[in-house]
Amino acid sequence: MAEPSTLLLGLLFLAVAAGWVLGRSASASDKGEDKSPPSQYYLGLNFLLDGEQESALKAFSDALAVNAETFETHITFGSLLRKRGEVDNAIKIHQSLLSRSKLPDVQKNQAHLELAKDFIAAGLLDRAEQLLKDLIELSVDHQADARVLLIEVYEASRDWVQARQLAESQLVEVSSQQEPAAVARASAIREKLAHYCCEAAEDDDMRGDTESAGRLATEALNWCDDAVWPQIILARLDHKGDKAQEAYDRLMRLAQASPDRLPEFIQDLLVVSDEIDRRDDVTDLLSALLEHTQDPQMRVIAAEEYLARGQQARALDVIKQGLLTQPSPKLLRQAIELLGEDVVSPEVIAGAQRLASRQSAYLCGVCGFHGPSFYWQCPGCKSWDTLHRPKQ
Ligand SMILES: [Zn+2]
Asked: 195 C-alpha to center of ligand 1: Å?
């Protein structure tokens, strides 16, 4: 277990001192309230001075948890420890709070919620799940927060059946509300439900159950009819079922409706178009899409397609235009590679490749997470469909 840092312990010590003074003054006006025993506070101080940090933390926790007035200080320290990665110590603090029989129920429930967050941070998802289910039963005030966390637990454990059930119950609740914000929330929940169906469809497809995968992807479209992911899954299933024409039609429609997501299915589209001898139409579509966008990634895709079709001059032209209007390291690399070693030295080509490889392919618009691979759910903030290619 990680030792708590001296700085944190020092801060906790000060908080306990302040909290205890507050607690004592409050208790003085209410003789029925339990009073914090100063012995724990001095004991903690002794442990701290002796360098016994674990024992000091325990003593301070004991001192701090005794009265309700110090509760918020305690919760703040617990969450601070969790955010610093000292999850074991956060768990100890919150468990210690829950062991206090004299805390009002509302505060106990809050500690309960914090402990569930600790368990999620520690990867103890089973324990978090049980705590959150209990809390949903116990506290009307904490139900909404507990449901949000419980969905997080189901997502992390890839339990899409339970995630869907919970999201559907959230949707029923939100749909009954009248305020304008409820409409936006309901739409966000529907989008999330579509993603859960797609995750489940991908799992079923991996297991070889294409029938169930198809059913789930179709259900995803019922939740959100302009979602991209279900169409990609359905096209892949069409292709597997020897229906290349259907897959092609679906992906061509998708390319026109959602050109931003084209990099996620361009390879599938090229494969099926070759199979039914419609590659020319894909090349034409890429040219048409290029006329309406400054997106350098679209230029990269179009230039690669022209090169694959043996149209070097056309490819170079598209790249040059891009370098003038909206340059990117990848376009520069393509241009230099295309010019070849007759024109530029191998060192320049290698330099351009290094420059391009440093640019993250994807960036989350919510939390700033970036990396080379695409995910439908951001690995950083767990938002759905927020990874996009940087526009430069
Ligand atoms: Zn993110």
From this structure: 16
